Model the fold of this input.
Amino acid sequence: MGIVVLTMKASVIEMFLVLLVTGIHSNKEMTKKIKRPKFTVPQINCDVKAGKIINPEFVVKCPAGCQDPKYHVYGTDIYASYSSVCAAAVHSGVLDNSGGRILVRKVAGQSGYKGSYANGVQSSSLPRWRESFVVSGETTTAYQKPSSVPGTTAQPVTLTQAPRTTPVEGTPTTLPKPSPSVDSTATSSPRPQPAGHRSQEPDLGSTITYPSSKNSPCANPGDTDLWKPGMVLLDAGFVPREELSTQSLDPMFQGDPNCKVDLSFLIDGSASIGKRRFRIQKQFLADIAQALDIGPAGPLMGVVQYGDNPATQFNLKTHMNSRDLKTAIEKITQRGGLSNVGRAISFVTKSFFSKANGNRGGAPNVAVVMVDGWPTDKVEEASRLARESGINIFFITIEGAVENEKQYVTEPNFANKAACRTNGFYSLSVQSWFSLHKTVQPLVKRICDTERLACSKTCFNSADIGFVIDGSSSVGTGNFRTVLQFVANLSKEFEISETDTRIGAVQYTYEQRLEFGFDTYSTKADILNAIKTVGYWSGGTSTGAAINFALEQLFKKSKPNKRKLMILLTDGRSYDDIRIPAMAAHHKGVITYAIGIVWAAQDELEVIATHPAKDHAFFVDEFDNLYKLVPTVIQNICTEFNSRPRN
Done:
């Protein structure tokens, strides 16, 4: 009986082993027959911008015809993400106009993008953008690994729908306009702060999946999925949450390019304003935000509230469209305290218009100061420093002091002392808080009239500066390098670009040579490099002829809206007459600084220099002491600039 049992158990084991071997063989045969699914390359249209695709790295297929100028590109080699992906690929030379596959890799935003013409595409310059990308030919990098388990299908490529631009339900977009009827809250007594509002999460839209293999494990490598507008590519399971929003890159949120200003509103949060009038002030801000069409290619707006001390409610880069800005304005609560306007203006000058706060550099800086009645501190000195920093101050006085109240005003005529100019363009006087809404359109029109924003021009960004450098034999090679270092040290102090300060240089002996003109270089780095590479000439000293040459070859090509500054450096007496050329320079509005070294003639320096000579003529007894003059020359240039009338 025991033997029979053992025989049955052996048979069972033998059958199990046969089945196991057969199964393994069968699985091997099935594995051989199953092909791994191929990665499917999405096809996009020519107008798709890189900012719409949130992957840090991706492969796409471009169609033919993307060389068309209607597809905009910004930058060279490194492109702003507001550029067309496929047009940038053509510009870079990775593709021709017939299209094809490309690899796109996101990189950090740049402080500036330089336009150029390449491969039939003209790219444009852009001062600043938050994100960039580079383009290369498609590589064999695996972007989607097939499943390692035999018989399973590939993971789908996931696309996320771009967030809708309509407001979230229940989010207020317009503040209720206060009624002008009599209300006890309109008194000047202190009021409690209004309650805050709940913040709401944005609608991130829904997620849609498209199988990359088109439901076939044997899809052709050339198969493409059409990338539809409103969708953004998404690597499955790896998307930083903050990159889901593409709203600010949508053309409808780019803002008005005809009003590209960086704007700060200084709002009155003092106790005297009262709760009702503070809300009218917020409604005014919301109306301004709506009228301005906020966006990264147009105006940007931040708010500073002042009382005893100022505080930033939000900066320039916090809200990139009018809808979000209006929602943020509604949530501002009153600070209370005094009306220390001067302290608030100083705060804005020192802290608000910084790169970290979103200041774009190429856009005019505008500060609109709103005052209920009159300030409780002085504004003149703080405003002067703000103007000299390039800030255009507008002043809105609401319900200003009447005759019997003027005795309480700390600083008479404070609005004209604060505003950018005293010609009435920068000052608005409003008789009643209930008529404040009537100033929305006039103020917006003035803010956006960038040609009249006179305080954007400072002593550092508004001149054509021509250096006239003595290269005579008495200077010598070593001292000539010291002179060039002085020229470089002065140039470094200015904001240099095609639209800001421009630098040119002439070297002279008996003859004259244009080293570079005002339009030769447009960046500080290029200017400094050009100065460093100027070669020493050697010869005689004809200073009068050099001045005439500079007037013809440099300053004749100066822009009409630029201040013309000539800085002449010489180490000896001129062999020719300098009086007539110097008078010609003064007559043509060229402000001339004459710097003499060692053997220079003091009487000639005073004739060459603009009056008064004590502010425009300088002398050092050694070449090695030239560096000491840099701060004095800069200070005198700025003092002369800032002393002009403000009417």
In short: The chain is about 25% helix and 20% strand. Residues 2-33 form the longest helix (32 residues).
